[in-house]
Write a structure and sequence with these properties.
This is C2H2-type domain-containing protein. It contains no helices and five strands. It is mainly β. Strands 4-3-2-1-5 form a five-stranded antiparallel beta sheet, with no helix packed on it. The model has no long low-confidence stretch (mean pLDDT about 90).
């Protein structure tokens, strides 16, 4: 069985260096193949993106520090019509 789930996820980010906080929406695609292997793919503004929770994947827009804290605050599964 092949499973593909599309969702919109919102993340909040906090820079421990300067204290700046911001949020951003990402489109995600969760894929599971017939053997049960799972992969997640992230997109921002329609372009491929690193996982926003991965170490060093997002830089602070205020001070450019690359080691920030990220938290997923919401996830909405997109339903095809």
């Amino acid at each position: 069985m092949h499973l593909e789930e599309h969702a919109t996820e919102q993340f909040t980010f906090t820079c421990p260096g300067c204290g700046h906080r911001w949020s951003a929406d990402y489109e995600s695609v969760h894929v599971e193949d017939h053997r049960g292997h799972e992969n997640d793919y992230y997109f921002r503004n329609g372009l491929p993106s690193l996982n926003p929770t991965a170490f060093g994947s997002v830089a602070c827009p205020a001070c450019a520090r690359s080691h920030i804290r990220s938290t997923r605050v919401s996830r909405r599964i997109d339903v095809a019509t």
